[in-house]
Amino acid sequence: MKKVLLIGGAGFIGLNICQHLCEKGGYKITILDNFFRGKKDEVLSALVDKYQIEVLTGDCTDAETYRQLELDYDQVYMLASVVGVEYTQKIPEELIRINTALIFNTLEWLRGANVGKVVFTSTSECYAGTVEQFNYTVPTPEEVPLCIDDIRHPRFTYAVTKMLGESGFIQYSRAYHFECTIVRYHNVYGPRMGFKHVIPQVVQRFLAKEEPFKLFGHDQTRSFNYIDDAVNGTVAAMETKNTDGEIFHIGDDVAEITIGELVQYMGSLMGFEGSYENVEAHSGSVSRRCPDVSKARRMLSYAPKTDWKVGVKKTVAWYVDYLKAGKNVFE
Fold first, then answer.
1. Residue 132 burial (CB < 10 Å; 0-12/13-18/19+)?
2. Whether the predicted pLDDT of 329 surpasses 60
3. I need a surface site. Which of 1, 149, 154, 236 has the fewest CB within 10 A?
4. Which CATH class is domain 2-188+225-252+285-304?
5. For the residues 279-306, what does the mean pLDDT come to?
6. Other C-beta atoms lying within 10 Å of the C-beta of residue 295
7. In this predicted model, what pLDDT tens digit does every residue of 67-101 receive, in sequence order?
8. What is the per-residue DSSP string for 231-276?
9. What pTM was computed for the model?
10. Could you tell me the residue ranges of all domains in the chain?
11. How far is CA 222 from CA 49, 107, 285, in A?
């Protein structure tokens, strides 16, 4: 049995990784989370009961939280962070404080622990400025220089902390002798992703009968990555040998679509028959994003399988049911 620690394991991606590992078998799993997004939900409760998962509650910005942990794990997934454009706009100073503190505290705990391998989860936001300012190649490979458009803009506070994390985990791994692999996510989506992202926010706006329906950044493009594919890529990054120090883009390079195309497809799913109005994108939003995942295909045998329309349809249906049922797990 491999001992696995999921820091931030009750979040969107973390809980899906947990479920995947449980179903795969052969893992003794510990979750550490502060449950910032709300109460422990039904999916987590069912997994805990069925697979005897250890659940630890604590604030990772407090170093004392790490005293709950054992000092030996085969695998550690570092997933914890505050994420979401809305948070960067409303509480950029808190996002900097929280993400920096939990990164530093995790690194300091690793210094005295006996851990086999760590996967640190990062983001495509790290190189958003490179693509925007220097017209870098799209689909974009891992070798792209990291760049911030305007350090004063709150939108980039999240990216700054993820750059810190990438550097920090790689340098600590070299100094304190554990393996480390970085994965950069590209627009991961799916059921239970919270409400700080484009798809659930658009669902809410359709349910609110917005008319005309505003298409913010209608001509900007994104390549969305369904949660099942993101999980498979992340676990492959952990399980594949000879990936120490490597960085992998985990996303979908097949279907780069416009925001307008995404929203109007969602409108068709929800029976919207009104009109659309093209509106300028929010400040700091990049015009185009699509990853080159050929390195992950080659080294991890990663192969995203979920067509974007299939994934979006599943996600929209989940959120419609969730909202109409009046649940408040994410409140």
1. middle
2. no
3. 1
4. alpha beta
5. 93
6. 17
7. 999 999 999 999 999 987 788 889 999 999 999 99
8. HHHHHHHHHSSS-TT-EEEES-SS--EEHHHHHHHHHHHTT--S-E
9. 0.95
10. 2-188+225-252+285-304
11. 38, 32, 11
